[in-house]
């Protein structure tokens, strides 16, 4: 007989799936100016559901498919390339040549779809392949953040928040793997469904 703990993840994920159509339309702070302090940088990844979901998915995927230190490879790579992309975004904004939203936003949405799918499929990759996959998407997340954040403190806050979200994703993945493995695929699928909703919104906008 399943325990209460093993049923709770399913209840939460089912509720999340029911809310996805509305959540896919939300992006608090989109197109708005942001302060450039440490707290603003830390809060910034939480203001867009696309960024938040992708960072959670990286941690979830790592926890579901890797063991030991290898579990940190994808999160470290994402955070590092995110910072590189943000620095490029800051430089481009200061030069009056910000990254085109028509390219950045679809890639951010695509990252949510792809990272959700690899988590749902529990697709195990070699370390270098994992770095390449998450790094390619992290650069575009960084460009999006860098266009709105400036200053070292803001970027430090952004990377700190990224690590918090990765850790939450890894915690969720480890919990599901231990208590309710049957729901771990649904967790990834729910993220992928969000990414599909975001891409569909862009196509029909």
UniProtKB/TrEMBL annotation:
InterPro entries documented for this protein: HupE_UreJ
Q: Where is the signal peptide?
A: 1-26
Give TM regions. 42-64, 71-93, 99-118, 125-143, 155-174, 186-204
Going by the UniProt record, its keywords in alphabetical order are: Membrane, Signal, Transmembrane, Transmembrane helix
Q: What is this protein called?
A: Urease accessory protein
Q: Which organism is it from?
A: Roseateles terrae
Taxonomy-wise, where does this protein's organism fall, top ranks first?
A: Bacteria, Pseudomonadati, Pseudomonadota, Betaproteobacteria, Burkholderiales
